[in-house]
Write a structure and sequence with these properties.
With about 240 residues, the protein is of the alpha/beta class. It has a single domain, classed as Spore Coat Polysaccharide Biosynthesis Protein SpsA, Chain A, CATH 3.90.550. About 40% of the residues lie in helices and about 15% in strands. The protein is built from 9 helices and 7 strands. The protein has a 7-stranded mixed beta sheet with strand order 3-2-1-4-6-5-7, sandwiched between helices. It starts with a helix and ends with a helix. About 40% of the residues are buried.
């Protein structure tokens, strides 16, 4: 991090932010992610989405606030649980990031700097030219981003990024989304755009662990994407 970033972060650290991490069987990484994230936020909320491993205990030991689903409900459902908690507390904003180490907590100030420009939400924009990214993920994200940009007349740089920062106003705008799966994050972006909220984009690192199995099911992802495209066309 540059000297400028450090100086800016010292000024912005007075803000009352929390982090929201949704986790499903992430006992290997959750502790490190919490420890690194704790440097930048007041509290860390972990939603354990029905894990069968030691995710709950590792997160609790690391000092996070734990919300638990007894059964796995999906990424969207976990985010909703975390957002509900966030809205009931006196936080100014919430930062969402993955539990598997795909997002670098030390880049949180990059999102906060964009928020200081007056945006209602900020999304981390990955560089998909990296050779470490699976081809299926590159293609899937590019298709979603391009098609939604055309349908919404609003440039979306990274539709699937889970590294985001939201104000309370932005979270409230998406409080009635029904989707409980991975596409909840895409629908949330669509809802913000349709309601006139401003979205900033911050360049972030692209991290993919070689050999790690994705929890996204390709066929289901395609079907759900098509449903969202049609929904955008009907509502345009």
């Amino acid at each position: 991090m540059s000297i400028l970033h450090v100086l800016n972060w010292q000024t912005m650290n007075q803000n009352n932010f929390c982090a929201l991490i949704c986790a499903y069987n992430e006992e290997k990484t959750i502790g490190d992610v919490i420890e690194q994230t704790s440097q930048y936020v007041k509290d860390i909320i972990v939603v354990d989405d029905g894990s069968s491993d030691k995710t709950f205990h590792k997160a609790k030991r690391a000092g996070a606030i734990i919300l638990q689903h007894k059964k796995n409900k999906g990424k969207g459902a976990a985010l909703k649980t975390g957002f509900d908690y966030f809205l009931k507390k006196k936080y100014d904003a919430v930062i969402t990031l993955d539990a598997d180490g795909q997002h670098i907590p030390h880049e949180i100030p990059l999102l906060i700097e964009k928020l200081e420009d007056g945006y209602d939400a900020v999304v981390g924009k990955r560089n998909f030219k990296s050779k470490h990214i699976p081809l299926s993920r590159k293609i899937g994200n590019k298709i979603d981003s391009k098609i939604l940009s055309l349908l919404l007349s609003y440039e979306i740089h990274d539709a699937q990024s889970g590294f985001r920062l939201f104000t309370k106003k932005a979270v409230k705008a998406a409080s009635d989304i029904k989707n409980n799966g991975f596409h909840y994050e895409i629908e949330l972006l669509i809802r913000l755009i349709k309601k006139g909220h401003t979205i900033g984009w911050a360049d972030i690192s692209t991290v993919y662990e070689s050999g790690r199995k994705s929890k996204i099911k390709p066929i289901k992802h395609i079907v759900e994407s098509m449903r969202i495209y049609l929904k955008c066309l009907r509502n345009k």
